[in-house]
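A student in our group prepared the protein record below, which I am reviewing. What it holds is a sequence and that sequence's fold in token form. My question to you is simply how this chain folds and whether the tokens agree. Do not assume that whoever made the record got everything right. I have pasted the whole thing underneath without changing anything:
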Amino acid sequence: MTLMRSLLVLVLSSGMLAGTAIYAQHDETDQRLVAAEQTYRQEGAEKALPVFEGLLLEFQQDNEAANIALAQGYIGECHWRLGNFDEARVHLDQALVLKRALGDRLQQGKTLNVLGLLEWDLGNFEQAIERFSEASAIGKELGNLKLQGATLNNVSMVYDELGDYRKSLRQYEEVLDIYSDVDFPRGKGDTLGNIGGVHLLLGHYSEAVGYYQKALQISEQLESIYAMSQDHGNLGLSYTGLGQIDTALAHFDQALALAEEAGMGQEQGMWLRGKANALIKGGRYDLGLQSHRTALEIFSQMDAQALLSEAQHDLGQLYLELGDTSSAEQYFQQALETARSLDFARGITLNLITLGDIQYFHQRFEEAAVLYAQAAQRCKETGEQGIHGEALLRLAQAHRDQGVLDQAALEADEALAIARETSAKPIEAMAIYMQAELHRERGNIPNSLTAYSDAEQIANQVGDPDLLWQIQYGRALTLILDDQKQAAVAALLDAIGYIESVRNRLKEKRFRAGYIQDKHQVYIELVRLQLDLGMKDEAFSTSERLRAWSYDEQLEHRPAATMTATQQQTETELRERIRQLQHLIKEENSQALPERRQLAMNTFSIDLMAAEQEYESFLDD
């Protein structure tokens, strides 16, 4: 039950475990192989590999077919563990041929399982599923429930990686049914954690709690300190999502104590970050920041540079949310330096973009453009197409605000080409919108209106209401330039329609102020235009809508005491689920086309729509 990378608002764990290898062990197994396997388990593949290779030579000299097959399988598994995938395939394939010739079905299943893990590591997911399924079928045929369940569990994890969470959940439940008839608590606990992890990933926090509590009971029975720490930490994450901060903190403290007892430094840092985020969500900012800093110290002492860079970036994001741009800039700069020391391309690019955002926020457009340009250049060099278009659009916006319109147009065009090449529809819509804005700046009204229409068509396809209202607002400003005031009124009314349809959509607080200000401007522009056209009643109605909307904004910040404890928990869980799913969609969309998982996108989008509808119904009630 290992951790995923953490996020700013909520540290998340997918609950996924490492692929399960089924070790070969018979009562009649040669004791030399048993001793070598013990070396493998206790000291690792590097120490065990030469031992197995020596044994293989001995078995070949004595023509011991069964032991040759076992030794070949172990050698292949050692090479797989060491990342020597070509050598691993050669030995595993030879072992499989020998075991088939011997008619040893159980050993065939175990080797097929390792071959599945090898294909998984190579990204050959269909072949991995095929191998795991063959192994699971053998387990079922032999009545070996451990082999059947463990390999089916691995199939489910491949589906998780593909983003087919619906199928993986069904199969995890099937694994639990298999384990119900066998004394295999470790396997059952791992599967329960995997199911909890999928629910946690998708923001189903109540369901995640149920599965993690069952996993914890098994971990306690096995007296596994590592597993107990993981279970408590995952429960802390789940309760944070439910808004039950005190309960979450209690679990994080237990997870931290167990991690410290077991010398699990990396886990200590991760749980500290989870605790920090829970504290901050509970309004205890000083303690939260202190926990974040302690996590940074742990990662630094461990020389865990990748985790350190990630933690520095997230702490920068936190300071940005709190309005401390100076401290945010400091941590983003540190994260950038750490990422550069690792030559971590994505980390370098993201921190350059974020540092550019801070400069842009302070209206230092020239400095922002320099950072955005560096990010775009890095994307070009490293092939990070997923965020290349985003960096170019930011650069175009900075150049537009500097009045360098020709350069901004070139950058918008390049972003559009990348978006179309990678089928990144959200970036494509934003790039065309930027082209429309630039045409308007130049006074090219026909091209501007055409571009707004093209952007609108794509934005409708991807369901981006935030961009849609901006498109309508830009179209209205263009129509005003062309003295088409009645048409401009219609466009502004459409913009307001989009705004009011997404009133309850959740946004990061650090974006909320600018977002609201832009919305107000739409109403103000409509009132002005209606007065110009003598539409006094309509202007009054619009101003009343703005006033009512502002009043509703105040109600959104009403004290939580106006709701029952159950209602507070329901609202918190729904808000966090929506926030998490929005983040997942954004992350998936930022991937280049070959890495983007359409199955995951479908799941996230369907779940987001359902969560928003449930939240709207909750508010209506």
Remarks:
- Confidence is low (pLDDT under 50) at residues 1-27, 504-515, 554-561.
- The chain has 28 helices and no strands.
